Each structure stands twice: as structure tokens, then as C-alpha cells.
Amino acid sequence: MSSPALSGGGGLFTGFTKLCKGLAVVLIGGHILVQLFPPAVTYLALIPARTIPFAWNLLTAGYTEQTIYGVAISVFALLFMGKLLEPIWGSKEFVKFIFIVNVLTYICVFITAIALYYATRLEVYLYMPISGFHGVLAGFLVGIKQIVPDQELSVISIKAKWLPSIMILLSIIASFFLADSAAYLPIFGTYMSWIYLRYLQRRSETNFRGDPSDEFAFATFFPEFIRPVINPISSIFHRMFCGRSDISNDGKAYEMGGFPLPGSDTFEASRRRERGARALEERLATEKLPVATSADGSHIDASEEV
């Protein structure tokens, strides 16, 4: 049976969670605030030269959209990707993911902006206000890659597992044409979310942390022909940023007597993908169920006839 595409049916614009709606209001409210009071950008957006002592902008910058296009894209993507991710992760984990990925992304952007200034001596890297939710949106794509990697977008027929890679490629291309550190937000958002999901996210059903499956390795973000080059590099980054390599003791802790426990590589990865695909199928089935009319004029849901 073919897997369903990542799209909705007649209920495309329904089923958004209350949490996502609330976050959408925050994004819209932040945009309205900086439009009505432009000086607010100084306090809400990330301006590397002023981050000390305004350290709170490492948090607030992610929820401050400066353009109408930015807020429209962020709200649209938040509602639709949150519609898939929040029911699977749970509201508490969904908020935790957004908070952690947002802060870590802007810390990386701050460090990058300082480094670019010292490398180029261009003050634009120090004083240009950087903000936007697209670092977290890139993280959502990584979550979708983890849960339903083989699902396809019905519009362009691309599998979900390639969405983060496409986002990274577009960001790299943009960085060559824009003297704006905001171009690096999706890159860092992708990597920070992968680190969190790979090593730190606690799975309530098994009480283990992370996803050690081969299907979610860092090299899977790249085409097959380049993976032999990426694998040695990624192991260095594992040790540098995560304190472990691909052959860490944590991976062995998922086994007992040579048999995988729940939470291990293949078993847990398969469970997560099956759960994500099942949730997506149920949602699409619910949205597409036809409504029939009986002889007496009453409506009968197709699910009841089955």
C-alpha cells in the first residue's frame, strides 16, 4: 500500500492545535508591535553588538518577525507542521523543542555574526537586527524527517526526508548573496534540532533519550555519493558537540545479551516511523471521509457505514 502524501483533504484548514494557534498569535503580535513601535526591534531582535547586556534577545528574536512575508510564512508553516508534530510529541515536548532549538539557534547565529565581523570587518554583521521563526521551522522539518521520512508532498512529489537538506541548500545559496546572518538561521536550526532529537529528546514510552537509528544519522541529510566524506566529519562533530561518537557506550546500553531493547536502533526507529505514519493516515482519513445522505434525509458518516 502506498504511503499517503503530506497534504490534507477537505479539512486542510482545520484541525490546528490550540498551542499552535497561540504561538501564531504571538508571532503576529510581535510583528504588529515592531511595525507600530519600530524602536522595539532594538530590544526584541538579535543585534550582536548589543546582545550583552540585552541577552534576552537570544530568546525573543525567534518570535519577532520584521516583515509581512516572514510572519505569513512562519504562521502558515507553524500551523501545518505543528498539526502533525504536536499530537505525536505531546504539547509539553513540542514547547520544549521550540524553546531549546530557538535559543541554541540564536546562540550559534550570535557567534557566527561576531566571527564574520572579525573576518571581514563589516559592521553590518554587528548592528543588523536578526530575527525570525525560520530556525525553528527548519527544526520542524527535521522532526518530520524523523517521524515520516518516506511520506511525499503531493504538490512537488519530494519525500519528507529531503526537506531539511533542501532548506540547508537554499540557506547556503542565500548566504552568498546576502550580508545578513539571518541566512544562517535554517542551517543552525536544522543542526541544533538534529542534535536534540538524536541525543537529548526523552521518549516517554521507553524512558530512553535520543534516536540512535542509522536512518537518522547526520549523513542521511546528504546524497549517497557524499556520505563517505560526511561520516568521518560527523563523528568528529559528535565528539566535539555531543561528547560521543557513532560507537558510543550509550548505543550499547540499548542492548542486552545481543538483543535490542525497546529504544534501540532498528526497533525504536521502526516504531516511531510506524506511529508517525499511522497518525498521518488517521488524520488524512478523517479529513477525507465523505458524508452520505440516507433515504429520510439524515446524514450518515462514511465511517459509521463501515
Question: How would you sum up this structure, described in words?
Answer:
A hairpin with a 5-residue loop joins strand 5 and strand 6 (about 300). The longest helix has 30 residues, at about 90-120. The chain has a two-stranded antiparallel ribbon with strand order 1-2. The protein has helices spanning about 20-35, 40-45, 55-60, 70-90, 90-120, 125, 135-145, 165-175, 185-200, 225-240, 250, 265-290, 300-305; strands at about 200-205, 210, 255, 260, 290-295, 300. The protein contains 13 helices and six strands. The model is unreliable at about 245-265, about 290-295 and about 300-305 (pLDDT under 50). It has one domain: Rhomboid-like fold (Up-down Bundle). InterPro entries: Rhomboid-like_sf, TMEM115/Pdh1/Rbl19. It is a multi-pass membrane protein.
Question: What is the mean predicted local confidence, pLDDT?
Answer: 79
End-to-end gap: 20 Å
Count of alpha and pi helical runs: 13
β-strand amount: under 5%
As for the CATH topology, it is Rhomboid-like fold
What coarse outline follows from CA principal-axis ratios?
globular
Number of strands: 6
Rg value: 21 Å
Please name the CATH architecture: Up-down Bundle
Helix-and-strand structural type: mainly alpha
The helix fraction, in percent, is 55-70%
Identify the strand order in the major beta sheet. 1-2
Under CATH, the homologous superfamily reads Rhomboid-like
CATH class: Mainly Alpha
Low-confidence stretches: 244-265, 289-295, 298-306
Subcellular location: Membrane
InterPro entries: Rhomboid-like_sf, TMEM115/Pdh1/Rbl19
Region (Disordered): 285-306
Organism: Chenopodium quinoa (Quinoa)
